[in-house]
Amino acid sequence: MTSVRRFRYAPIVASGILMLTLAACSSSEQSTDDSQNTTQSSATFSVGGINWAACPDTAPESLVQCGNLEVPFDYDNPDEGSFVLYIKRRQATVPSERIGSLLVNPGGPGFGGSSLADDAAYYFSESLLNRFDIIGWDPRGTGLTTPAVDCVDSFDEYVGLDSPPDTPEEKQALIDASQAFNDKCEENAGTILPYISTRASAADMNSIRLALGEEKISYFGFSYGSELGATWATMYPNTVRAAVLDGATDPLSTSTEAGLAQAAGFEKQLTTFLAQCSKKPTCEFHNDGNSEDAIDALLLDLDANPLVVSAERTPVTQGVAFTAIAQAMYSDSYWPQLQSALADAQKGDGAGLLALYDDYYQRNLDGSYGNQLEAFLAISCLDDPGASSVEEVDASVDAFIAAAPRLGANFAHGYSCALWPVPQAQQVTVSGKGAGPIIVIGTTGDASTPLSSSRKMAKALESGVLLVVEADQHTGYGINTCIIMEVDNYLIDLTVPVNETICKS
């Protein structure tokens, strides 16, 4: 395995504004659950089993099976309603060597995890596939789990606006678009919006474990999946066999603090990208060795003269360009594409930037969208909305600009969570107390979850162990043999690596 692209994600979408923020587990009392080793998830809700069957459109000999599990909106009040979790299981390749199940989550929040069972060979080593059933599920409110968050059919009118705002009118347009998006979410998904927190999804993980009949279970989470896993390990420590958290945020930071850390992380990667372009004449955005000034000039030009790609699509505004740039900062594998897009935009062709913008918002070839970003916003705002008013958002702009001179203003102007219609959910203070050693992976060039944030996750956990991967991308497992071996030895044999081990390519 080499250089695996696995996110996702860490963006908060706010009407044309890119505010890349992982929802943080912040101040509240630590949760406990006396039922964690029993056959039910609460005193009033009994967990059923999972009836596994062949998945639609799969060969009969496929190792992947599909199933469903009903869980309540509210474990303390199960009569409120229920979700039906969509789950896939990729069975261990070598049954005689099977250790147990490995719960997996790709990130988000808002991204379904069932596809990880289908794509398990892309994400995990052969050694893990031989020994574990890979259990991927679409968390409550996401993917094919029902009901799911679904607010709008198209994003352009809400997120394609110019950003950061230069006039009171542009600022009001962003606020109005955020409010309109929130109104659509409340109208089309309001019933479930109070019930899709990270804490609630962690409780679902325990229900899945119970349904699988395993006393203890292993977990591998990427990006936001690290936050989900840390929450689960704190709530149900006695059920944790092993846990790996790849690309982790600081679990004790506020959403604003996490946003500032991310703004700085994306700025750092953009600076690296531009410096490399300036040094390499082969870079399409070389600009006679001055890519830095060239991108500043291009962004100013787009602010005044957005590029029209087609009559049906949003123009490539400065805000669209910022989104495209941020999309490319998730991995240096995108950098050649960004070089071409920026060079084309200089010549008046915005198609390349629009394509990266579309990748960010998960636009399909037929023009439709998944619900990932809608669910992302709904879960993030429920977990930790951060600023509670437009004025509070505006008050943080200078701090964002100080942290990220090029990108900070764009990151700062996110109004959706400040206007979100649902009160914040009860949170869990992450500690992992009693869960045993938990592996945290941090990558040196990770824009979305900077190494400093992953290091803070490891320190917040009672027995956190940090592994550092040298690479310019988000998440680190699969990049080189070193990190694969360290993680696999831990998951298979429970051999705990040395803290702060550095894996170089």
Topology:
Layout lengths: L11 E3 L2 E3 L20 E3 L2 E2 L6 E2 L9 E9 L9 E9 L9 E6 L9 H4 L1 H4 L2 H6 E7 L17 H4 L8 H22 L8 H15 L4 E6 L1 H12 L4 E7 L8 H25 L11 H14 L13 H11 L6 H12 L4 H10 L11 H12 L6 H6 L1 H7 L4 H5 L25 E6 L7 H10 L3 E6 L11 H13 L7 E3 L2
Parallel strand pairs: 8-9, 8-10, 10-11, 11-12, 12-13, 13-14
Antiparallel strand pairs: 1-2, 3-4, 5-6, 6-7, 7-9
Helix pairs in contact: 6-7, 9-10, 10-12, 11-12
CATH fold-level name: Rossmann fold
**Any idea what the shape is?**
globular
How helix-rich are the residues, as a percent range?
Answer: 25-40%
CATH architecture annotation:
3-Layer(aba) Sandwich
Report the β-strand fraction as a percent range.
Answer: 5-15%
> What is the count of distinct domains?
1
Question: How would you sum up this structure, described in words?
Answer:
The protein is of the alpha/beta class and 505 residues long. The protein has a single domain (1-505), classed as Alpha/Beta hydrolase fold, catalytic domain (Rossmann fold), CATH 3.40.50.1820. Helix content is 38%, strand content 14%. It has 18 helices and 14 strands. The chain has helices at 115-118, 120-123, 126-131, 156-159, 168-189, 198-212, 224-235, 255-279, 291-304, 318-328, 335-346, 351-360, 372-383, 390-395, 397-403, 408-412, 451-460, 481-493; strands spanning 12-14, 17-19, 40-42, 45-46, 53-54, 64-72, 82-90, 100-105, 132-138, 217-222, 240-246, 438-443, 464-469, 501-503. The strands form three sheets. A ten-stranded mixed beta sheet has the order 5-6-7-9-8-10-11-12-13-14, sandwiched between helices. It has a two-stranded antiparallel ribbon with strand order 1-2. α18 (481-493) links the parallel β13 (464-469) and β14. α6 (198-212) crosses α7 (224-235). The two termini are 12 Å apart. Residues 1-42 have low confidence and may be disordered.
